[in-house]
Write a structure and sequence with these properties.
Length: 168
């Protein structure tokens, strides 16, 4: 079991046993992270058209995860002095680590796109390109990563909610 999973489990258990009530600083960190994460723009590679479906291109999701990792890393650095050894910092660290794991794929996709497209692509061409560069097994890995992020994010939401219940 990884250290990140242990940290997430420890925070969830502490919340459920009510041995951890997030401090005002932890609540501020959690709220700020969610607000900034939810405000992140969906990025496209240069020349990539908007996706016709609401879920967007798989590449968009990978780029968004990369942006989320960058945001979480910035916030971890900014809050470290205020919240050393905090459950909320451990949760954000786990979230960042998971999101950060797409960095090699993101770089690979950007490099492949740049090598193959000099101008705008059609939606059909982009769909074919993604089918080639994001095969089903790769998409399943991204889906599994996203599922793990949802678990970590759910514990963070529960922590923010628990703090709100306590009148903070």
């Amino acid at each position: 079991m990884s250290q990140a999973v242990d940290a997430v489990d420890a925070a969830a258990i502490a919340l459920n046993e009510r041995s951890w009530t997030p401090s005002d600083y932890e609540l501020a960190l959690g709220r700020e992270f969610f607000a900034r994460r939810d405000g992140l723009e969906q990025r496209l590679l240069p020349g990539m058209p908007a996706c016709p479906t609401p879920q967007g291109w798989g590449t968009q999701h990978v780029l968004w995860l990369e942006d989320v990792a960058r945001l979480a890393d910035e916030m971890l650095a900014a809050w470290q002095a205020w919240l050393p050894d905090s459950h909320m910092m451990a949760l954000l660290g786990a979230y960042a680590g998971l999101a950060r794991s797409v960095a090699p794929l993101s770089a690979q996709l950007a490099q492949a796109w740049e090598a193959e497209w000099t101008g705008p692509a059609s939606q059909q061409e982009t769909s074919w390109w993604e089918d080639w560069h994001l095969p089903p097994e790769q998409r399943q890995q991204i889906d599994a990563l996203t599922d793990r992020l949802v678990v970590v994010g759910s514990v963070m939401v529960m922590a923010v909610g628990r703090g709100a219940e306590s009148g903070r």
